[in-house]
Amino acid sequence: MPYSYRLARFEDLPAIVSIYNSTVPSRQVTADTEPVSVESRHAWFAEHTPQKRPLWVAEQDGEVIGWLSYSNFYGRPAYSGTAELSIYLREDARGKGLGRFFLKEAIAFAPEIKVHTLLGFIFGHNTPSLKLFEAFGFERWADMPRVATLDGVERDLVILGKRVA
Known about the structure:
Blueprint: E1 5-7, H1 13-23, H2 42-47, E2 55-60, E3 63-72, E4 82-89, H3 98-109, E5 117-123, H4 127-135, E6 139-150, E7 153-163
Parallel strand pairs: 4-5
Antiparallel strand pairs: 1-2, 2-3, 3-4, 5-7, 6-7
């Protein structure tokens, strides 16, 4: 299935949050342990400017089925050429190539927003996401053992990186 994306609009935020919250119970994708509110994500949404750190959504039949964000890494000016990528997909959109599409587009677009290095912060037990990023040439730049505790289970965080420009 061919996909397309567009910049997210504020009215997309409830769908974006819903997709995010759908991943919380899996304990595989996010370190949040409880769902977040739309209101709590207003500032996060505002940080995603099209010129520097875009937030994209993919739609199907007029509904948001996934999103990708570029986020600042470490928040200091010297790191402005580095961005963290996050990809979240609605459950019925997973495993159908949308994640691959998003990642391919994000890598190609990064130089347009003056990003030369992309990062993925992925739990060590999230095999599908690790394989996705590694398939696009991301390498393991850091293994952070047992830095997260989810339901009493200590989990590793893997930082994958790729130079794109």
